[in-house]
Design goal:
Strand content: 15-25%
Order of helices and strands: HHHHHHHEEEEEEEEEE
Number of domains: 2
CATH topology of the largest domain: minor pseudopilin epsh fold
CATH architecture of the largest domain: 3-Layer(bab) Sandwich
Oligomer: single chain
CATH superfamily of the largest domain: minor pseudopilin epsh domain
Shape: elongated
Structural class: alpha+beta
Largest sheet: 5 strands, antiparallel
Distance between the termini: 28 Å
Length: 314
């Protein structure tokens, strides 16, 4: 067997999946713009409708003075909740990619959660200590300090509710769907950036370490990777397992490193990257060097390979 081309770093090229049963699985599909827009519209309308229904019911059930107290209390929640924690929980989803790429996600999460908890404890303690002054400020009646105690307890619940969506957004980063989409986005980024410039880019998939890297090629020595060349250095989530890589020249590898290089004229090699989810369902990231596209397809798809001379009848 001839030596593998430069896009495969291993001399051993076993055909993976022999004896495996890989059937298509439609559990993951791309979301269209129309679907996303429709979901956003439905969610917005539902949120506004629930808010309107709440106001209607409160107006019917509460006396005028009680309705006024509710309105003031609700306004207090809207102001105090983000102010007490300085908006730190909202940074979970915003900076998760930045710290994850640098291997500092856990320290960032622990520090942010700890500081948010301390700020919340200090703020709620101050409210309880100065509850008569707060009651005078909100209700114009220091005797309503008992309501301020209830507001402080409600504020604790509200802060937890505000933090949970941010944490869920963080945990979503570790799901199979998010992990594979991040990888596809990286491949598409390399193709787009190369097509719009004269620069060359390379995506390196390490099947042993289950990581991938995007870099701009600036040196003639393709084996040397400079720190300043690295654009993205990420790992597949725990629920994503890269099974093997097949190039469109019929080369295989299921170990070592596989490299896809993109220049202004397109991909140097096409192929597919087969990734398994937590239930061992295969998905294929197909790199087409003819039309430069990178698409995600369910199942271990069959590639369209050029025929040999003896297979062509004319």
């Amino acid at each position: 067997m001839s030596n593998p081309p430069c896009n495969v770093s291993s001399d051993q090229q076993p055909r993976p999946g022999d004896g495996d049963s890989r059937t298509g699985h439609s559990g993951l599909r791309a979301e269209t713009l129309a679907e996303g827009f429709a979901f956003l519209v439905v969610l917005t309308v539902a949120q506004r409708f629930i808010g309107l229904l709440r106001e209607i019911l409160f107006c019917r059930w509460l006396a005028p003075d009680e309705l006024g107290q509710w309105s003031l209390s609700f306004g207090f929640f809207l102001l105090a909740a983000p102010l007490v924690v300085c908006g730190l929980p909202g940074s979970f989803g915003r900076y998760v990619a930045y710290y994850r790429e640098r291997g500092q996600l856990r320290p960032f999460l622990v520090r942010t959660t700890t500081i948010s908890g301390l700020l919340a404890a200090v703020g709620i303690t101050l409210i309880l200590v100065a509850r008569r002054q707060v009651a005078w400020f909100i209700f114009d009646d220091p005797a309503r300090a008992d309501l301020v105690v209830l507001l402080a307890l409600g504020l604790v619940s509200l802060l937890v509710m505000l933090a949970i969506p941010s944490l869920f957004g963080l945990l979503r980063k570790n799901t199979f769907r998010s992990g594979i989409r991040d990888f596809v986005s990286t491949m598409q980024m390399a193709a787009t950036a190369a097509a719009e410039s004269e620069r060359r880019y390379e995506v390196i998939i390490d099947l042993d370490e289950q990581t991938y890297l995007l870099r701009q090629i600036t040196s003639s020595d393709l084996t040397q990777i400079l720190d300043e060349e690295i654009i993205i250095d990420n790992d597949f989530s725990e629920r994503c397992l890269v099974s093997y890589v097949q190039f469109d020249d019929e080369e295989f590898t299921n170990e070592g490193r596989a490299k896809f290089r993109a220049g202004h004229s397109g991909w140097q090699y096409g192929g597919k990257i087969v990734i398994l989810d937590e239930e061992d369902n295969p998905y294929s990231v197909v790199v087409n060097r003819v039309n430069r596209t990178v698409v995600l397809k369910p199942g271990d798809v069959e590639m369209l390979l050029p025929k040999r001379k003896d297979e062509v009848i004319f």
